[in-house]
UniProtKB/TrEMBL annotation, chains A, B:
SUPFAM superfamilies (alphabetical): FAD-binding/transporter-associated domain-like, FAD-linked oxidases, C-terminal domain
This enzyme's EC code(s): 1.1.2.4
Protein name per the record: D-lactate dehydrogenase (cytochrome)
Transmembrane regions: none
UniProt keyword Disulfide bond, yes or no: no
Gene3D superfamilies according to UniProt: 3.30.465.10, 3.30.70.2740, Vanillyl-alcohol Oxidase, Chain A, domain 4
Residue intervals of the FAD-binding PCMH-type domain: 48-225
Sections of the chain in a coiled coil: none
Any one biological process term the GO annotation gives: lactate catabolic process
Gene Ontology molecular function, alphabetical: D-lactate dehydrogenase (cytochrome) activity; D-lactate dehydrogenase (NAD+) activity; FAD binding
Family of the protein in this entry: Belongs to the FAD-binding oxidoreductase/transferase type 4 family.
Keywords: FAD, Flavoprotein, Oxidoreductase, Transit peptide
Keyword Flavoprotein part of the UniProt annotation: yes
Amino acid sequence: MALLADLPRNEDGIATALDVLRQNLGAARVETGQALREQHGHTTTWLRNQPPDAVIFPTSTEDVQEIVRTCAAYRVPIIPFGTGTSLEGHVNAPAGGICLDMSRMDRILAVHPEDMDVVLQPGVTRKALNTHLRDTGLFFPVDPGADASLGGMAATSASGTNAVRYGTMKDNVLALRAVLPSGEVVKTAARARKTSAGYDLTRLIVGSEGTLGIITEMTLRLQGIPEAVSAATCSFPSVKAACDAVIATIQYGLPVARIELLDALTVKGVNAYSKLSLPETPLLLLEFHGTEGGVAEQAEVFGEIAGEAGGTGFAFTTREEERNRLWQARHDAYWASLGLRPGAKGISTDVCVPVSRLADCVAAAQEKAAEMGFVAPVVGHVGDGNFHVLLLIDVDEPTEIAAAEAYIGWLNDLAISMDGTCTGEHGIGQGKAAYLEAELGPGAIAMMGAIKRAVDPLNILNPGKMRLPD
Amino acid sequence: MALLADLPRNEDGIATALDVLRQNLGAARVETGQALREQHGHTTTWLRNQPPDAVIFPTSTEDVQEIVRTCAAYRVPIIPFGTGTSLEGHVNAPAGGICLDMSRMDRILAVHPEDMDVVLQPGVTRKALNTHLRDTGLFFPVDPGADASLGGMAATSASGTNAVRYGTMKDNVLALRAVLPSGEVVKTAARARKTSAGYDLTRLIVGSEGTLGIITEMTLRLQGIPEAVSAATCSFPSVKAACDAVIATIQYGLPVARIELLDALTVKGVNAYSKLSLPETPLLLLEFHGTEGGVAEQAEVFGEIAGEAGGTGFAFTTREEERNRLWQARHDAYWASLGLRPGAKGISTDVCVPVSRLADCVAAAQEKAAEMGFVAPVVGHVGDGNFHVLLLIDVDEPTEIAAAEAYIGWLNDLAISMDGTCTGEHGIGQGKAAYLEAELGPGAIAMMGAIKRAVDPLNILNPGKMRLPD
């Protein structure tokens, strides 16, 4: 696990900065308990824990500025933390330093129903936002698996099952404010829905994984809760047949809100876990959002397309209870998959390829996993060409960790060879750092490195992530 | 016109670079005819012409690299040029230098129907692309007024009437390649539809107005040509009533493809120009894209919403000939507006505000224009809160130029005070440079400046645009 070597620590600087911050913020706010620190180096994957030296919970932009200025003065790393649900070691502290847990900056500052946007602090989670919005008829569509903080979702450019219709965080953050390594606050855009005013700093900070600035305020686009929703499911003889149906559906222009694939192994897990009796072959699950008439028509058109691609067992409904039943397999997929190898931990891969290459990529991934002896169910946000192989491994067994690492590397290389990416939605962090240059080449790495050095010349913001050249 | 002061020229460097390029590319390729140079400093607005010293038409990435390396060696400005239809002086050469006219890099390299994307060179225009795509059932939706080059559209982050449904260039460029000031080529992203791999260099270069890199290849998202299209129009007693209908339509979730406003003065111009007899009050024009049943239903729902907001004379159709008739007022709006003051030139403003502020902003803009004695019709892409006041002035009359400049500044400030932007789709260039800091504050300007210096330390790429701090 060479990737996870610790980086050199600035021991004196860290000690001094902690003293100064204790002085300025109050000793109690600079928390150093071991359990808390380890929890804040939380990784949900195969990467080992590298806890920060202290955790501080800022409650205001001024707090963040104070901490950043102190850390800049003593060259101490700062690791911004949302809910710790990122998957590629984004919140690890390989050079130590101070974790800024943003969870107490969780105020919703303004909802603008006419403009369909919301201004909020980064610690608000996506579910908390949608609960808050319930009476407005609006919702925020980006839905990664976890109830992540919106600041963390922006920092890692998260997405989820709705992205095929509503886009990713890149498409849904209208503007943000962030504290730069200098301690200054940057406002990236006005609240207008469209702008051509200068460099797109919003999207530069979205996905920058806490390496350019610490997000302290965001303006997000909202969507109207659809009048009607329909759900549809269909089984297919092969991943290829299912992918053909996906391509035809999108080419036809059906406005799918969600189009998810479960492979045969996942369906098997779901049957066991949820006591269902679905055919143990690849399954597509769809959702349409629109008018009553529209969503029924769309589901039926999909049924025809699916039939032409060899699909069987097509079912659809517009009733909520029935929808939940049809989608149960998807909702249970993660836990059901874990049940395929009791006691194992699931390590998620995250590649994304042009949709035309998806069937080939999934088939090769399944074959390779079988060849290497993995139990490895697959789920995919297939409208975008994005899928996850869940490697079920015993994380206390170094040979299994090594095999998982080898498999992930192999799959990253395969996706890249298909003009795809090693990460569709999880980000680079520590886990994918070795693949960024393979994907984009030296020009992009050099440009990203130049930007990083220009904005953060002391390299204090989340060092060791993305591994850009010094 | 302080903005348009010439910048210091590096006379020796320019002379040497031209000699070297004549040597290396052939003398005939380094064109210096005055008419050609003036045409390449083309501005369609009140900004005066500042021609480059020479124009070169590169035909390959290698050409671009050769020119960039030579210009870097002798510190000579480079101004990338698409079709010269930008509106804010983007292609002026205030410090002289070499214009790279990209129009001969106009090959479509690959269409991927299954992935709904296209790979092409930057000199392809939007209409040429759509002609090429006609048989594929796909189209590229971004539609600024001019038949601009796609490279220029990316560089200025262009949009148009379709943006409310299909987004702007920021949403439709999947990946690009650009030659950096170092002469290196950067590849910003793979061809997958979604990525979280590193900083979003694609969107950093989109909208950077040729100041960070010269785009040499792009991958664009395509859309399926809709099965059916409906058009609807409705008159309103006031801009406020029309804007209320816009807000209600979008909140309802109607998937409008276009929603355009003509103010009463524009309608008056259209009646005269096209011999129509529309009520001379604000007019909304809409288009819906979808299934036969869907688009008819949507137009009818809009009719109800419009009626509730006080609209009259609602008309809709799904037939193509009839659609063209309903939309004629919009298609003729520009030329009809010029007819309101024969011999005058139209100077376009371009502010964008949150939709909730749109009615106030348009009303104030009309009032101020009347107060200042302008003939100034208004058209708006109102679903996005973006509108253009067209100031009809005699550009040979310095007092009119000065008044137009004052009005534009007043309007920019007003939009900024409403949490809007001084440019929704035209960009900053020279014309809006004084407003960028007012809009975003010193933090953003400093960050943009740091990025610019990091990527282009010699400031050779399109100097004098955006006026970022050195």
